[in-house]
Amino acid sequence: MSKEWLLWEIFIRGQHGLSHRHVGSLHAPDAEMAIKNARDVYTRRNEGVSIWVVEANNISASSPSEKGPLYEPSESKIYRHPTFFDIPDEVGHM
Fold first, then answer.
1. 3-state DSSP assignment of residue 46
2. Burial of 20 (0-12, 13-18, 19+ CB in 10 A)
3. Which of 1, 32, 83, 88 has the fewest CB atoms within 10 Å of its CB?
4. pTM
């Protein structure tokens, strides 16, 4: 049995935001301890209202070198990219 703690990726939802944001990583023996450690490390100044912890080995990600082939099919679907619409100034930032 390994005595090495698991690596956890930490996501925090800020008080003024709607989505969780990746803030870093830490080692902990289980999810409960990872949340407690994340609270102590990443929310010392009441920055967050919610913490997600995910075991790093459960995350699958694409490689930046695969960007071309991965996203190439969507370039031919212009209806997915509303760049040809004029947005009124009153709307503000979208």
1. coil
2. middle
3. 1
4. 0.68
